[in-house]
Every structure is written in C-alpha cells, then in structure tokens.
Design a protein that fits this description.
The complex is a heterodimer of chains A (114) and B (114). Chain A contains no helices and 11 strands. By secondary structure, chain A is an all-beta fold. In chain A, the strands form 2 sheets. In chain A, strands 2, 4, 5, 9, 10 and 11 form a 6-stranded mixed β-sheet that branches. In chain A, strands 1-3-8-7-6 form a 5-stranded antiparallel β-sheet, with no helix packed on it. The N and C termini of chain A lie far apart (36 Å). The chains are: A mainly beta (114), B mainly beta (114).
C-alpha cells in the first residue's frame, strides 16, 4: 500500500517559474526522501530530510517537513526544461527493522515549458 | 562507474514462461532490492537483501524468487509469468540497510507478459 500520496498528480509551468509539489503520508517516519525520474530511466535521489528537521535546501531545491500534519513539500525554484520529470516522495518506517524498505508515493509529473 | 546495471532492458514473455532479471552493482553496497512500477501505483517493493546470503520479502513477493550469492548480484526470477506481472522492474541498492541511506536505481527492465 502507498504510504505517500503526492499532490498534484501533474503540474505544467513555464521555464523560470517555481514548481511546488506536496506529499502526505500515513504513519510515523524516520526520514523522508525525494527522488526524480526522467522518462524511461531509473529514479535519482534528490534530497533527504530527517523527522527532526523542518526544512532543507539543496541548490534550487527546498524541502519542508511537517510531522504534525504528516506532510512534506518540494519546491523547485527557477525551473528549467531539464527539470521535466516525475517526482516521488519516499518514506521509511520509524522502527529500525532490517532493510532500507522505502515506501513510494504515486509521483507528480512536472512539465516545464520553454 | 557503472552503478546499478539491469539486463535486459526489454522482455516479452508468454504466460507460464519463466525468466531471470539480472541486477549487478559495483559500489560494494550491502543492501539491494527489487521494485515494480505500475501506472498510478508508485513503486512497490518485491524482495530485498541486507547482505550476501540474506533475503526477505517485500510488499508484493508472490510469483517472484530472489537469491544473493554475492554482494554484487541480485537476480529476480519469475517462476511462471502472468499478465499481472507486466510492469517495469527496478533494482536499487544502498550503502547499508539502515533507513536514511539513499537508494541508487538501475534504469529498469520493461516486461510484457502476453
């Protein structure tokens, strides 16, 4: 079953605009990660935020985490055509059981028009 | 630096046939896993391994077998293919099996079962 649900499912913006997507999850987590998937390729890790962090930056990416609302957002600033991809959030369970068993959401498809 | 390599890239099977999807990584990662990706479903974990000789089931293990005889290789076997197994399969590895370790993905195997 999906732990994370991304919103919106699809997003179309002009180059230079900001893109924001949200992820909601159901159970407590240790970490939340965001991945990007270009068409026909595997997922690429973008950023990880731990449950005790509220905000994290990496280049043009800004991630927030609100554990009280069980939600996270990914902001891509000054978007480029190369940012066209699907974006997925992934969570790991709070218990330190064996295995890096990430649960992925259904993704947000982002189209950046030149 | 190859990372995670999956073969084949594409495969068509008839119902009832068996096959093995290959996955190899050259990063000396302890943790390896298999996911399937279906439209609107995100990625679902099939099987995973926290080290050579150790495997365990994920969310959707039925119809699949795995083994981990070396650190580098983690093949996925379809025992008797069914149309419901039509999907894109991704192998992913991480440095260790602890939560918070980013996954490195291969580029996937697109499987069609007729």
């Amino acid at each position: 079953s999906q732990q994370g649900e991304e919103d919106p499912q699809a997003l179309s913006i002009q180059e230079g605009e900001n893109a924001t997507m949200n992820c909601s999850y159901k159970t407590s987590i240790n970490n939340l990660q965001w991945y990007r998937q270009n068409s026909g390729r595997g997922l690429v890790h973008l950023i990880l935020i731990r449950s005790n962090e509220r905000e994290k930056h990496s280049g043009r990416l800004r991630v927030t985490l609100d554990t009280s609302k069980k939600s996270s957002s990914l902001l891509i600033t000054a978007s480029r055509a190369a940012d066209t991809a699907s974006y997925f959030c992934a969570t790991d369970p709070p218990l330190k059981a064996a295995g890096n068993k990430l649960t992925f959401g259904g993704g947000t498809r982002v189209l950046v028009k030149p | 630096n190859a990372g995670v390599t999956q073969t084949p890239k594409f495969q068509v099977l008839k119902t009832g046939q068996s096959m093995t999807l290959q996955c190899a990584q050259d990063m000396n990662h302890e943790y390896m896993s298999w996911y399937r990706q279906d439209p609107g479903m995100g990625l679902r974990l099939i099987h995973y391994s926290v080290g050579a000789g150790i495997t365990d089931q994920g969310e959707v293990p039925n119809g699949y077998n795995v083994s981990r005889s070396t650190t580098e290789d983690f093949p996925l076997r379809l025992l008797s293919a069914a149309p419901s197994q039509t999907s894109v399969y991704f192998c992913a590895s991480s440095y260790d099996g602890q939560g918070g370790s980013p996954l490195h993905f291969g580029n996937g195997t697109r499987l069609t079962v007729t």
